[in-house]
């Protein structure tokens, strides 16, 4: 008997907010909000044109967005989750800090956002629906 791997996400998961802040000799700061939407297959990351942005300097934005997307993809693709990834991730907001915002901070924030979304559909939370 073979069982088909579950698809992620089974339903929309909206408003996943992450504030990643680490204060030490190498500070980290990243804040994002993303939506996870079911897709036909694979992984897609979208940035709407009307995205609320609080990013200085503005030229850093593409690198930071790419790092957040990479963190989300990396976490969702981990084999221990045993999922078929069929997701469209939409970035809803992003905020940076002049001292601690860099690619590593946004990669970590992406991983944390994916973990939060995965927690919404874990076996213990199935049937309760997505929450914010």
What attributes characterize this protein structure?
132 residues, alpha/beta, six-stranded mixed β-sheet, 2 helices, disordered C terminus
Describe how the helices and strands are arranged.
Blueprint: E1 7-8, E2 13-22, E3 28-38, E4 42-46, E5 53-54, H1 61-76, E6 84-95, H2 103-120
Parallel strand pairs: 1-6, 4-6, 5-6
Antiparallel strand pairs: 2-3, 3-6
Task: Characterise the protein shown here.
This protein has helices spanning 61-76, 103-120, and strands spanning 7-8, 13-22, 28-38, 42-46, 53-54, 84-95. The relative contact order is 0.29. It is an alpha/beta fold and 132 residues long.
List unreliable stretches of 5+ residues.
124-132
User: For the residues shown, what is the average pLDDT?
Assistant: 87
Q: Over the alpha carbons, how many angstroms does the gyration radius reach?
A: 15 Å
Number of E-state strands: 6
Quick summary:
The protein is α/β, with parallel strands linked by helices. It has helices at 61-76, 103-120, and strands spanning 7-8, 13-22, 28-38, 42-46, 53-54, 84-95. It contains two helices and six strands.
């Amino acid at each position: 008997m073979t069982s088909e791997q579950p698809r992620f996400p089974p339903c929309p998961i909206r408003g996943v907010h992450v504030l990643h802040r680490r204060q030490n000799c190498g500070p980290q700061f990243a804040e994002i909000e993303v939506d996870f939407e079911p897709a036909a297959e694979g992984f897609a990351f979208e940035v709407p044109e009307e995205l609320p942005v609080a990013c200085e300097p503005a030229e850093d934005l593409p690198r930071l967005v790419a790092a957040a997307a990479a963190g989300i993809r990396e976490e969702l693709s981990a084999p221990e989750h045993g999922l078929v990834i069929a997701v469209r991730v939409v970035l809803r907001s992003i905020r940076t800090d002049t001292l601690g915002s860099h690619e590593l901070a946004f990669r970590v924030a992406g991983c944390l956002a994916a973990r939060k979304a995965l927690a919404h559909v874990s076996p213990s939370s199935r049937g309760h629906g997505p929450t914010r």
